Amino acid sequence: xRQSNLLIPTxxxxxxxxxxxxxxxxxxxxxxxxxxxxxxxxxPLGNRVLRKVEQIVREEMDEAGASEMLMPALxxxxxxxxxxxxxTFGPELMRINDRHEREFALGATxxxxxxxxxxxxxKSYKKLPLTVYQIQSKFRDEKRPRFGLLRGRxxxxxxxxxxxxxxxxxxxxxEKLFNAYKNIFSRCGLDFRxxxxxxxxxxxKDTHExxxxxxxxxxxxxxxxxSDYAANxxxxxxxxxxxxxxxxxxxxxxxxxxxxKTMEEVxxxxxxSLDQGIKALMFKVDEQLVLVITRGDHEVNDVKLKNLYDASxxxxxxxxxxxxxxxxxxxxLGPVGVPEDIDIVADHAVQxxxxxSCGANxxxxxxxxxxxxxxxxxxxxxxxxxxxxxxxxPDGNGKIKFARGIEVGHVFKLGRYYSEKMNATYLDQNGxxxxxxxxxxxxxxxxxxxAIVEQHxxxxxxxxxxxxxxxxxxxxxxxxxxxxQLELAEEIYESLKKAGIEVLFDDRxxxxxxxxxxxxxxxxxxxxxVGKRAAEGYVEVKYRDSGxxxxxQQTEIINTVRSFISEVK
Length: 569
Hints:
Blueprint: H1 21-28, E1 32-36, E2 39-42, H2 44-63, E3 67-68, E4 74-76, H3 77-83, H4 85-88, E5 94-97, E6 103-106, H5 111-121, E7 130-139, E8 154-164, H6 167-187, E9 192-196, E10 207-213, E11 219-224, E12 230-232, E13 253-256, H7 263-270, E14 278-285, E15 288-295, H8 302-309, E16 314-316, H9 319-326, E17 343-347, E18 356-359, E19 365-370, E20 380-382, E21 400-415, H10 417-421, E22 425-427, E23 433-435, E24 437-444, H11 445-455, E25 457-458, E26 461-462, E27 473-477, H12 483-498, E28 503-506, H13 512-522, E29 526-530, E30 538-543, E31 549-553, H14 557-568
Parallel strand pairs: 3-7, 15-17, 17-20, 27-28, 27-29
Antiparallel strand pairs: 1-2, 4-6, 5-6, 7-8, 8-24, 9-10, 10-21, 11-12, 11-21, 13-19, 14-15, 14-16, 18-19, 21-24, 22-23, 25-26, 29-30, 30-31
Helix pairs in contact: 1-11, 2-6, 2-11
EC number: 6.1.1.15
Organism: Salinibacillus aidingensis
Enzyme class: ligase
């Protein structure tokens, strides 16, 4: 393709609203443009990369036995109401009414739609197992779209769904697609980890996320420093054991703590360390108020709390709800003297505490010398805190370290979560109706594109892996006004095309410096420059990633390019 015919509007400066490298470089290099907050158009170069990632996804999904289909983005509310998610999915679900005031949703995901299709069309066990997938735009009304393609309101996604008559069959497909995902992200040139995760609004139990390691990732990965254990920090269990102090119990004492609201402020004011205090937070678990207690240096893990209660919804109670229930604000809550209709649950670490401080449920006051069981009763002790760096790894090997990651893929074992709610059944060998057992498998295609850039760039621009680069070769004619340069460049261009090599030909009437800068910015893996030695039949070949360069005779260009492409595939 001739560059003079392409829409590639490059920029010298970063956009004002671009906070991370992938956002900055994809806009500067002319791969995409923002239309509104969280909404992007993919220009020709960006679209070519998307298609490359899509092709890798298709090849690996097809190899794993899945077949491609396409479902509508506009979904009737009745399907979501069948599953119960119309009420529980949250404000991220974009809801609209048609001219007849019928309710619809713009597809954030397609579990309901595919379940309804299979319910209506697949009646016998003889067609099981079955796996289908699609690549399609999804819509979510993000409260704060940010980080370019990493958190948008419209994004390209591959979602797949499998249907089974046994959990053993589900396990087999899950393993196949788990391995397909590893192949996909490896072929995209990514450094990633598969981590244990929470299913969230998707339902189901067993699930893994595929995380691309990056400092700009919004998720924290907890991993062992000596084994292959890795989990989203929300899901990593704490196996730390706590020894109860043999310190003599002291008398409960109420003290004034004016204007001391945070754990740090209270600990400093009372002259003790954070781990000698109790933190109390009021949560709303579905419609129930629950007081959650942790040690002062620990943080409540609301995912673990949600799983403890098998709840649909968990959030911090409002200031008004908390004050109405406890007669005190957030900074003075504690477990002593709590009304009987409020559950108190505590993290395991609290059980071993002796003579510690906590809020007195009166603004500006705290208790000292508080001891569990003597001064308050806990309805249940459980693992309710986030794991911390240095804690023992949950698999018993090594210590926990943290890394940040960008989620690019997620695989779920849904079980009968949707089929039972939506009455999706098949007839087994005995003619008995059974609910389908389901799996769900998603890849953020546009997120993957951004994640690749986060891991593959330098000070001058993007450094695309050859497998997903918009073109393999960027051919530059430095001075198109010089006949020997233009003629040689045209000959090379035609020979590369005939050889089936993807080439972008910079035939613009621009200065050499502009062409070099744009080429580095766009990040095409191999650059061929036709310049001063054109009359001798020599060109300069430069490898974008390594920066290595060499002079190559015209007759050897095809072999040089083919050798490079074969090495990186």
